[in-house]
Specification:
Layout lengths: L6 H4 L2 H17 L4 H9 L18 H14 L1 H22 L6 H8 L4 E4 L15 E4 L5 E10 L7 E8 L7 E8 L4 E3 L14 E10 L4 E5 L7 H35 L13 H15 L1 H13 L7 H28 L9 H9 L9 H13 L5
Parallel strand pairs: 1-4
Antiparallel strand pairs: 2-3, 3-7, 4-5, 5-8, 6-7
This protein binds flavin-adenine dinucleotide (FAD).
Length: about 375
């Protein structure tokens, strides 16, 4: 990308407004935002991170992060669901930018309209990327059959390909953690079990795999379990943390905008002035702005470093889990403050802030969760625990 980046070119105002109008409906009815996906696909949004020479928009992670912030101001659940697809296309970009082959089919698939879901989370697997309870059984032809249960699979009703990992315990060089993509076949069952406090539109349902097969050309990586410098680990970690930070920063931005609008219209009977003239409310809005303003530049700087292949070495992991942690902590604080600025009206279910309040809580559960982010930072500054 060169020149000044205009997010409205890729996410036009009128599309954003239609997505915004539908958000409360999908939240109330607990449904997947199919029309949002259809319109975003038609606008080329699913291939923003695919290089132009392969038919995509050729954007970098820095531009995608700005777009995801913008999308989240309209519909956090839509942004979070699409995030999972963007993560895989972002990992494909990390690969192609570094001359690592193997994920071109993700780029071509995204251009062709495929929807990629992210099947990493498993119940009780706090090793996350570094281990898996899903069995990856090698097949004669070099493919793999996956058996296990993935939880919180966003885009559940609509994905066409699921990127996942599983553990190969039987090959000669086992154990190996296998990263691959499976299609939606009879070997994959999606439960209708998504009924949550917030982020209801993501429809992140449980996925059961009973020998779901990945073709040899869709087996992307076989790596040793545990922390690993492989590009698949860096690719997922960097793109995931930055885009996730973007979604929650977008929620904060919306809460701040709504709070400002409300302060300008609510009027005090005591003083006759709008609340925007009230010193306490002014302090609160300023507090929100001071917290919010820190995040977009941090996200932009780290995303640019990924795009430009800057090597932060071991510092990358604290930087990336740190920006995600700061974004979700900031966003929760900002939405809290916005509720107080808006007053009791924000407690009604019909009020947008009450939805943002529920949506923003999901941030703490995504990797890196607060415990993991703190453990990473503590190890970076104090060294590993004696054991
Ligand atoms: C809105 C939202 C969208 C998400 N989208 C995705 C996505 O698309 N892809 C993805 O990979 N992840 C996704 N995640 C998952 C997320 O990253 C975490 O993995 C998830 O929140 C689980 O967190 P936890 O381990 O703290 O939960 P926990 O509460 O520890 O576990 C979650 C569930 O797993 C089961 N469980 C817990 N421990 C065990 C055990 N020992 N044995 C068996 N079952 C157990 C329980 O049923 C429990 O309810 C999403 C999360 C949220 C909130």
């Amino acid at each position: 990308m060169s020149g000044v980046f205009d997010p409205a070119v890729f996410l036009p105002d009128d599309l954003l407004e239609r997505i915004r109008e539908r958000a409360p409906i999908h939240d109330r009815e607990n449904t997947f935002p199919q029309q949002d996906l259809d319109e975003l696909r038609a606008a080329g949004y699913l291939s923003i991170l695919v290089p132009a020479e392969r038919g995509g928009a050729g954007l970098g992670l820095a531009e995608a992060a700005i777009l995801q912030q913008r999308l989240a101001t309209a519909a956090p659940a839509t942004a979070l669901a699409i995030n999972m697809h963007l993560v895989w296309t972002g990992v494909a970009k990390v690969f192609s930018d570094r001359g690592v082959p193997g994920l071109e089919f993700v780029q071509d698939g995204a251009v062709a309209g495929e929807v990629f879901a992210f099947g990493i989370s498993e119940g009780g697997n706090d090793l996350v990327l570094f281990g898996s309870d899903t069995d990856a059984a090698p097949l004669q032809d070099g493919g793999y059959a996956f058996t296990g249960t993935k939880i919180f699979t966003s885009l559940a009703p609509v994905w066409t390909r699921l990127g996942l990992h599983g553990l190969d315990t039987t090959s000669d060089d086992a154990p190996k953690l296998v990263f691959a993509f499976v299609e939606r076949t009879d070997a994959v069952t999606t439960s209708d079990d998504w009924d949550t406090l917030g982020m209801r539109g993501t429809q992140s349902r449980t996925t059961r795999l009973a020998g779901a097969q990945a073709a040899p050309e869709h087996v992307v990586r076989r790596i040793d379990p545990g922390p690993n410098p492989d590009p698949i680990v860096f690719g997922i970690f960097s793109v995931f943390e930055i885009l996730l930070a973007s979604v929650y920063t977008g929620i904060a931005r919306r809460a701040l905008d709504v709070a400002v609008q409300t302060a300008a219209t609510r009027r005090s009977k005591k003083t006759g002035a709008t609340y925007s003239q009230d010193p306490d409310i002014r302090w609160r809005i300023a507090d929100m702005a001071l917290a919010y303003d820190a995040l977009p530049p941090q996200i932009a700087a780290l995303a640019r470093d990924v795009d430009e292949r800057v090597d932060h070495g071991a510092r990358w992991f604290t930087q990336l889990s740190g920006v995600k942690h700061r974004a979700i902590t900031m966003a929760k604080h900002v939405v809290d403050q916005a509720m107080l600025v808006a007053g009791g009206g924000s407690y009604f279910s019909s009020n947008e802030l009450s939805r943002l309040y529920r949506d923003v809580l999901a941030g703490a559960f995504h990797p890196s969760d607060p415990e993991s982010a703190h453990a990473t930072a503590a190890s970076a500054w104090l060294g590993p625990l004696d054991s």
